[in-house]
User: Which sequence fits this backbone?
């Protein structure tokens, strides 16, 4: 396990400049207004802990994918929102710094008093950030005396502010958000209460092969939905009409099914499917069994028989991990399967089943259905990062942090 800020203790931060990588990559509308501040709120426990410990808090983040410096991708509105959120708790200084390094950043950081917070401008205004440039990392590192990573969503990338900086600045510690992600996801994978079911959906088998392979070593039940299911059904020799299929993955699907059988893992595929001629709201839909798919239609959601089967299988399980929608949930006609699974997960959570949602489109489905994250045991904040974590890959932004129990190190 990685060393956390709580393990380091409040005294360790007293009067220190603490450089914190957060994920403030928030969605904005055309006017630049923040449409969802979840990611800012998610960092508050770490920021407040450090402020209470009298640290000088230097926050850094990326926003979007800017090509050079543009006002559109400035973190200024995020700093304003952060100030509002923090002032609800206690009055504090939150300063926006117009550059993430150089004289501007150094001067601003030097003026901080214990308990103050500043947010540096978008790291990705410099291409060196994503290139993990050592000199850029060294300059970032020079702003702090302690490094804290609280940006799970970017921990699968070795960038200057996630991995590079730790070559020049130690201790390198995990913030509360990162700690919770690591604990929840690794406990789910490595020490689940059994039976342990995983539901994997989404568009492509090819993008989930790593996850499927890893979960085959961990889970008792594997439920497959979304467009992915049609490759598995075709691999069984069924006709799937115009459904999205990856013909080059059929051998893989057969291999996975054989492996699941050999290991005694229950593999659940759809029994019935909601079909339509096109992916559009308001189109006529047809419900068919998987044996009777019309050759001119696309399978776009699982049907009621499948939902009943999934519900009955899940009701026997003690841990459930869900990644990827079961249908095209963005179109109301094809959202029922995904929404039914969400209802089941919410219900089972109240019955002490551990329910974990692995980022990306599943989180978008929760939001579309207005389900609060607190209704489930854990909702991961990372899309790509949680997928890679579930593949069993060691994420570079986590691997580089200090180990718990290790002596507080010096920069490498
Ligand atoms: P992924 O990013 O691989 O998790 O895929 C998520 C996307 O898969 C969502 O945008 C869904 O609309 C899409 N999806 C789910 N089921 C289907 C389906 N049966 N046919 C086409 N796309 C689907």
Assistant:
């Amino acid at each position: 396990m990685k060393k956390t800020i709580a393990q380091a203790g409040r005294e360790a931060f007293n009067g220190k400049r603490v450089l914190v990588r957060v994920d403030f990559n928030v969605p904005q509308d055309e006017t630049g207004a923040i449409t969802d501040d979840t990611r800012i709120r998610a960092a508050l426990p770490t920021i407040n802990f450090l402020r209470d410990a009298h640290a000088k808090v230097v926050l850094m983040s990326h926003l979007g994918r800017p090509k050079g410096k543009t006002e559109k991708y400035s973190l200024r509105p995020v700093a304003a929102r952060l100030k509002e959120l923090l002032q609800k708790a206690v009055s504090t200084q939150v300063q926006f710094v117009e550059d993430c390094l150089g004289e501007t950043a150094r001067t601003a950081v030097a003026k901080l008093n214990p308990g103050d917070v500043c947010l540096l401008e978008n790291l990705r205004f410099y291409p060196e950030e994503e290139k993990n440039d050592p000199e850029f990392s060294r300059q970032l590192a020079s702003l702090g005396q302690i490094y804290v990573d609280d940006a799970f969503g970017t921990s699968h990338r070795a960038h200057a502010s996630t991995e590079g900086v730790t070559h020049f600045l130690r201790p390198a510690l995990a913030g509360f958000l990162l700690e919770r992600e690591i604990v929840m996801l690794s406990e789910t994978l490595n020490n689940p209460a059994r039976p342990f079911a995983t539901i994997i959906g989404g568009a492509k088998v090819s993008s989930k092969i790593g996850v499927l392979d890893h979960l085959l070593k961990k889970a008792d039940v594997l439920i497959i939905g979304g467009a992915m299911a049609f490759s598995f059904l075709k691999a069984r020799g069924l006709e799937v009409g115009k459904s999205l299929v990856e013909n080059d993955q059929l051998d893989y699907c057969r291999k996975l099914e054989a492996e699941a059988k050999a290991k005694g893992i229950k593999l659940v595929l759809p029994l019935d499917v909601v079909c339509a001629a096109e992916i559009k709201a308001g189109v006529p839909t047809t419900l068919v069994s998987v044996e009777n798919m019309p050759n001119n239609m696309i399978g776009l959601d699982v049907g009621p028989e499948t939902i009943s089967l999934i519900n009955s299988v899940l009701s026997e399980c003690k841990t459930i991990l869900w990644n990827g929608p079961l249908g095209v949930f963005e179109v109301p006609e094809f959202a029922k399967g995904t929404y039914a699974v969400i209802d089941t997960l919410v219900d089972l959570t109240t019955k002490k089943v551990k329910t974990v949602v692995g980022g990306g489109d599943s989180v978008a489905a929760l939001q579309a259905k207005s389900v609060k994250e607190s209704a489930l045991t854990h909702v991961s904040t990372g899309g790509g990062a949680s997928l890679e974590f579930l593949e069993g890959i060691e994420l570079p932004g986590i691997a580089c942090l200090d180990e718990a129990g290790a002596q507080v190190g010096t920069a490498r």
Observations:
- The domain at 5-179 is CATH 3.40.50.1260 (Rossmann fold).
- Residues 38-52 form the longest helix (15 residues).
- The chain has a mean pLDDT of 94.
- The two ends are 20 Å apart (CA to CA).
